[in-house]
Amino acid sequence: MKRSADLPLVRPVVALEDHCPAGFVDVFHCHPRAQLCYTVSGVLSVVTEETSFVLPPNRAIWLPAGMMHQATCIGPVTYNSLYIDPDLPGQPQECRVFELSELVRALIHELLTFDYAYDVDGREGRIVRLLLDEMPRMPAMALQAPMPRDRRLRRVCDIILSDPSDQRDLDEWAKIAGMGRRTFTRAFKQEIGMGLATWRQQVRLMAALSLLSSGKSVTSVAYDVGYESPSSFTAMFHRVWGVPPSAYLAS
What we know:
By secondary structure, the protein is of the alpha+beta class. 39% of the residues lie in helices and 25% in strands. Strands 1, 2, 3, 4, 5, 6, 7, 8 and 9 form a nine-stranded antiparallel sheet that branches. Helix 3 (151-162) packs across helix 4 (170-177). The longest helix is centred in the last third of the chain and has 18 residues, at 196-213. The two termini are 30 Å apart.
C-alpha cells in the first residue's frame, strides 16, 4: 500500500492511486493536507470522531486537513486520493460525501499522470485549477451517520457499525453502555439528534448500499443488515433513497 507521507508535496495538489485488500483497516490517523478520496471500485467505510461514512464506487469524501479518520475496506478497493494544500482558498471545513461527474473523474485520472513537479503555470496547472473549481459543484449525498463523543455511547455505536444486523434491544444496549434505559435514551438523542432506532436504520441502509455495490442480491442484503424480510427492506430503502434496491443495482 502506498502512503501519503511518501509523496513529495512540492505542488498545491498531488495524487496517488492505490489498491487495498478486503478487510484492510487504516487505523485512526490524519494528514497535514486536505484529502479527497475517490473510490474507483469497491466500497470504503470512513469513520471520523463525529461521523461514519460509506463510499460506494464513483463517490468521494472530502476530509479537511488534520481530520482524524479511520478507513476500512469492505471487499477489495481501488481508490484515488488527492492531497490538497490547506492554504488554497475556498476549501470546505467539514467532511462530506459527494458524487463525481464524468468531467471530474477524467480530470483526476489526468492528474494521476502528472510528474509530481508539474508546471503550475502550464497545462497541468490549468487542469488542477479546473478540478478545484469543479469539486464544490458536485452534489452531496447523505451517506453518513453521526457518531457520539461520549465513550459509553460510542461503544454501542461501534458494535452496531461492525454488525448492523445485531438485534439486541434498547435495554441490552443501555446495559452495554453502563446506563439506565431512560438515561441512555436521553443521552443518545441529545448527542446524536435522533433515537437509537433511527440511527441504526441509517447505518443498516448504508451497509446495504455497500453490500449491493459488491454484487450481493437484494434478498441476501436484506437479511445481512438485519431486516426480517426482503419486502420490509425494499420498502425502507425506497422510502429513504427514493428508488428500490433493484433500481440502485441497475444504475
